[in-house]
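Two entries, shown back to back:
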Amino acid sequence: MYNESTKKLDQPPSPTYLMAIPSKVYWLAEGADSADFSTLVLLPISYDVILEQVKTGETVGVVEESRLPASFFAKLGARDIASSDEIELDDDLRLMVETLPFVLIVATIEYSLVGSDETIADQIITTPLGRYQWAEDRVTKLKEYFRDNAKFEVPLPDTDSDQSVYDVAHEIVVQEAKNLRNKNASLFGGVKDGYDNILKELNPIVTPRDPLEL
């Protein structure tokens, strides 16, 4: 069998990125000691924060590397997860927010192989836990979500700040969660078609073992 990932590239890869910091919202019903279910939230990151990109462009399996600012570095692993106190929305519903210290990347990568005129477009989702092929129509739905929530793009902390970019993202999600009853809920997937359940579909990719199941 032929391993395509080792085949030489003819056309250098031309990636288009969507980047986001993931948060999990845990919903607690009245009288419950633990969450009933979780919702994924994604806060967009500007492509402009990338400091450097190196295109190897030699094979399908080795395509491109990016370097991000120091505020993106999570040094303590799970201990870098930012957790909120319980937030009470009303008498019968509470929630908690956790923001995960990594970047989710969705990339559409176009390339062609030596000896072929065909341009191949792969839809790739990458987290520290893995790399996944995705369908083009799902990427389209995710782009709709990013477009509707562009105002929540995460700003970088000041260079002299001890905050990480994940701390900044966490504060944004917590503030929006506190005002959820009075605001547009698009950040939480609360639109007419729910972005075709795109956040629900991504949830197990972001955390293959949801803390609710542990």
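entry 2 starts here
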Amino acid sequence: MLSTKAYTPEQVAEMLQLSKNTIYDLISRGEIIAKKIGKVYRIPRKSISFIFTGLDSDLNQAEQIDQKNLKKITNALKESRKEMYT
């Protein structure tokens, strides 16, 4: 039998003595990392322990910065290629 490695927002709300709405707000702000599977979010067990250290929020923020920088780099490459071949 598999041990629980992920929880629903409802389970996390009960564990942390918070409302379900608060958990969903934390997910939408990126303070809790969750994966939507079908119509239900699943929250990895590790994500719950990181709630208290802020690591998930920091990782999410770094990922967003990486995505933003990737777009800038891609655009710069496109412009460079245009200049080279025109």
